[in-house]
Automatic annotation (TrEMBL):
Belongs to the tetrahydrofolate dehydrogenase/cyclohydrolase family. NCBIfam families: PRK10792.1, PRK14186.1. Pathway: One-carbon metabolism; tetrahydrofolate interconversion. This is Methenyltetrahydrofolate cyclohydrolase. It holds the Pfam family THF_DHG_CYH_C. It comes from Chlorella vulgaris (Green alga). SUPFAM superfamilies: Aminoacid dehydrogenase-like, N-terminal domain, NAD(P)-binding Rossmann-fold domains. Keywords: Hydrolase, Multifunctional enzyme, NADP, One-carbon metabolism, Oxidoreductase.
Length: 296
């Protein structure tokens, strides 16, 4: 039987509507103050420009004030750090995001470490990640894409406690925090990576699969247990002369095969991607609400 689709685009839209009401309430309660998000973009990558544009548009939709610094590809690390320092000191900014990837001459870790943890809406600061890994400690922010995966599971009625979960991929941005989040929900988690022996067999034992390995359609139908829930984080462009843009987007999961086995599955596009931006707004509103309450 074909799997039920988890519609990330529709769920993200619903979340934005919920937040629009919350932002209006915050403004009412705190004398017209609005959450502010600052985005630093370095270089001219088309995909990054699109993501930043979409982030600013989404901010506008929910009532978040957006600030932006666009730097040339040749910008120095000192210039990027200076932009971050300016936003760290600006009381109207509650969230700071440096769009990744950065050009290779800039030390990404040094830049991310410079963001104040109170404004780290990407949740990439080592202190926030460290707290995510610890029992009894809570991060101020959780990285947006893994947080979006969890939100999709919860809003789709998937019970997590006691379930076997497999995370395919161990990146700092998605795989590792996704595994930590599932563990916090009392899943038994296996992280599958490029050196894992019998990766397909291990994955096929999981009730929940989060695929974030960055390899087009690597997770085939034989990786999926009958009835499993599949969340596909991958966004890979594959050449397709018949497509309007000359390419089409596919995930890290072979959708046609996996949807024959899974009970629920996210599509690409329209699955996890839109949730990344919705969770960024969520983090920004939560950060602003904390600040407003502390200032009151
Ligand atoms: N500082 C950060 N940089 C990057 C992050 C991040 O979370 N923080 N994630 C990605 C890019 N990204 C957001 O920045 C992002 C990627 C994809 C989507 C999305 O909605 N994708 C659509 C398809 C879009 C298309 O047609 O090309 C979908 O999946 O439906 C949103 C945000 C790397 N950098």
């Amino acid at each position: 039987m074909a799997a039920q689709l988890i519609d990330g685009k529709a769920i993200a839209e619903q979340i934005r509507q919920e937040m629009k009401a919350e932002v209006a309430e915050l403004k009412e309660k705190f004398g017209g103050k609005a959450p502010g998000l600052a985005v630093v973009l370095v270089g001219q990558r088309k995909d990054s420009q699109t993501y930043v544009r979409n982030k600013k548009k989404a901010c506008e939709e929910v009532g978040i004030v957006s600030f932006g610094t666009d730097l040339d590809e040749s910008a120095t690390e000192a210039e990027v750090l200076q932009a971050v320092a300016g936003y760290n000191a600006d009381p109207s900014v509650h969230g700071i995001l440096v769009q990744l990837p950065l050009p290779p001459h800039i030390d990404e870790q040094r830049v991310l470490d410079a963001i104040s943890i109170e404004k780290d809406v990407d949740g990439f600061h080592p202190l926030n990640i460290g707290r995510l890994a610890m029992r009894g400690r809570d991060p101020l922010f959780v990285p947006c894409t893994p947080k979006g995966c969890l939100e999709l599971l919860k809003r789709s009625g998937v019970a997590l406690s006691g379930k076997k979960a497999a995370v395919v991929g161990r990146s700092n941005i998605v795989g590792m925090p996704a595994a930590l989040l599932l563990q916090r929900e009392d899943c038994t988690v296996t992280v599958i990576h490029s050196r894992t022996a019998n990766a397909q067999r291990i994955c096929a034992e999981a009730d929940i699969v989060i695929a974030a390995c960055g390899k087009a359609e690597m997770v085939g139908g034989d990786w999926i247990k009958e009835g499993a829930v599949v969340i596909d984080v991958g966004i890979n462009a594959v050449d397709d002369a018949t497509a309007k843009r000359g390419y089409r987007l596919v995930g890290d999961v072979n959708f046609a095969e996996a949807s024959e086995k899974a009970s629920q599955i996210t599509p690409v596009p329209g699955g996890v991607g839109p949730m990344t931006i919705a969770m960024l707004l969520r983090n920004c509103v939560d950060g602003a609400a904390r600040t407003f309450a502390a200032e009151a």
